[in-house]
Design brief:
α2 packs antiparallel against α3 and α2 runs parallel beside α4. A five-stranded mixed beta sheet has the order 1-2-3-4-5. With 166 residues, the chain is an alpha+beta fold. It is built from four helices and five strands; from the N terminus they run αααββαβββ.
Length: 166
């Protein structure tokens, strides 16, 4: 009987403590969302300043892609994101395969806005998943809206088809 008086309060405290932990975990803010990436170095103003010194559009595009790629990769908490140009009107955005779609959308919109502001081009963006061994797998596209070119929409297609492999 003496053990019951010792075990019961300890068990009650344990249940209360676990209940509080579960409630805090349920209402805690999401931690899988990326911060404001446009403030990571080189930030948007630095990119615009560096691009202003280039005259030739092909060199501007290459510099734009390398600066944005370095924004994600040259950090202690690096993200394996690569920005490149498929053609003069299309940007290739290569994201890690395990990245959440809402984070890919945020990055694509950020790249699209900076390309529109810095290069003066309203281009589209093709979003790819990257893996170690196979080629790129196309999972989505960002396209400017025809009725309002200042807005864009991102559409995803996660169904595997032959034309998705690049």
């Amino acid at each position: 009987m003496k053990r019951l008086w010792v075990i019961a309060p300890v068990a009650l405290l344990l249940v209360v403590w676990l209940g509080i932990r579960c409630l805090n975990a349920r209402w805690a803010p999401a931690t899988d969302e990326l911060p404001d990436l446009s403030q990571w170095p080189p930030d948007a103003q630095t990119v615009a300043h560096r691009l202003a010194s280039e005259k030739e559009m092909a060199k501007k595009r290459a510099l734009f892609a390398s600066l944005l790629t370095s924004r994600f990769r040259d950090r202690p908490d690096a993200i394996a994101i690569r920005v490149s140009w498929a053609n003069p009107n299309t940007i290739k955005l290569c994201c890690p395969a395990r990245m959440e779609p809402w984070n890919m959308s945020r990055i694509a919109l950020m790249v699209w806005r900076e390309a529109r502001n810095d290069l003066g081009e309203n281009c589209s963006i093709v979003i790819f998943h990257t893996y170690i061994s196979p080629g790129l797998i196309k999972v989505g596209e960002l396209r400017p809206m025809p009725q309002n070119p200042n807005r864009a929409e991102v559409k995803y297609n996660f169904h595997m088809t032959e034309n998705q492999l690049w």
